[in-house]
Design a protein that fits this description.
The chain crosses the membrane at residues 9-26, 46-68, 89-105, 125-143, 226-248, 291-309. This protein has helices at 4-38, 43-73, 77-80, 87-113, 124-143, 199-210, 212-221, 224-227, 232-242, 254-278, 285-301; strands at residues 163-171, 174-181. The chain is mainly alpha-helical. Strands 1-2 form a two-stranded antiparallel ribbon. The N and C termini lie far apart (64 Å).
Length: 315
């Protein structure tokens, strides 16, 4: 019987391969159906696109995905020296997300040029599947060190640590505080389950929240007034550029700058432009969030270090 590590390895690799191949097949099948409708129910065009998708997935799997996974599992030197970014995530973006977004942009161009208005705007299922697969790859990469069973006491999100505080009285007027790392497991009583934490569950929630802004900007492209216009191109391009944050390690200091440069600042510009041109196609909450993130990043990274802000009399 295979060991638990072997079962976990097989499960993770199967899920990641499904996240790589299924979005490509779904997007290409929808594009094949679109070409079939455009060419007057021509099944030849449909099966050519389907055959191309099968050939593409087979080629990238044998030539790129499998060799990369083999090098990672065998812990080759050029792989083990990589500590600030994730090769699997980069390969996934290039092999899956990029061609899927390219096909979605092409489908928008075909539909707008032929004045085709469909009840299914083509983008909802494929885009949701592409982004969901992206999130799944992120989650798998982050929980890979953990076991599938039992408790995971480590915090994988890089969030706030909990501390247990001890008060040591020295005199009636003075006291010293001593803090040491503490886990929720230290609490007892009938309601101790309220303090329970698990790093794997935290990663699941954190990953979805991490990609929520990208999901919203892509959702805007599905609006009919936006989808059949030229604005769909910069939206998909900026959304794809924001996905490169997946390549950076979650604990890397570079992630903060990448969030500012690849997501919040360009998303702020494109959302303001969309609101000016199309009205409130996106909730105002999102550009406000992008603005606040940009302002706080610039202030705490650059302005707060200036001499004028470092005086002791400043608040």
């Amino acid at each position: 019987m295979p060991s638990g590590k072997t079962i976990k390895l097989i499960l993770y690799e199967v899920l990641q391969f499904a996240a790589l191949s299924v979005p490509v097949f779904v997007v290409m099948e929808r594009f094949a159906s679109l070409m079939n409708d455009v060419r007057g129910m021509d099944l030849t065009a449909y099966w050519l696109v389907v055959a191309a998708s099968i050939a593409y997935v087979t080629s990238v799997t044998l030539l790129v995905w499998v060799p990369l996974k083999y090098a990672i599992l065998r812990k080759r030197r050029f792989i083990t020296e990589i500590t600030q970014w994730r090769p699997t995530a980069l390969a996934y973006l290039i092999l899956c997300t990029l061609p899927c977004f390219a096909i979605l942009i092409s489908s928008s161009k075909v539909m707008s040029s032929r004045l085709i208005v469909l009840l299914d705007h083509f983008t909802e299922l494929p885009v949701s599947l592409v982004l969901f697969s992206l999130i799944c790859v992120d989650i798998i990469e982050r929980i890979r060190p953990c076991r599938l069973t039992g408790q995971c006491k480590a915090s994988l999100t890089g969030g706030t640590n909990y501390f247990q505080v001890y008060v040591i009285s020295i005199s009636p007027r003075t006291a010293y505080l001593y803090s040491s790392p503490s886990r929720p497991q230290f609490f007892s009583g009938p309601l101790r389950f309220l303090w329970a934490r698990d790093g794997r569950a935290e990663v699941l929630v954190d990953s979805f929240l991490f990609w929520l802004d990208t999901v919203e900007i892509v959702r805007v492209s599905g609006e009919p007034s936006v989808f059949y216009s030229g604005w769909v191109f910069p939206i998909y391009i900026l959304a794809f550029l924001s996905t490169f944050r997946l390549v950076i390690m979650p604990q890397s200091p570079l992630l903060s700058f990448a969030g500012f440069a690849l997501q919040d600042f360009p998303f702020l510009i494109i959302r303001i432009a969309l609101i000016v041109v199309f009205g409130y196609v996106t909730p105002v909450l999102y550009p406000v969030k992008n603005l606040l993130v940009c302002l706080t990043f610039v202030y705490f990274t650059f302005l707060a270090k200036l001499r004028i802000f470092r005086g002791e009399s400043m608040f």
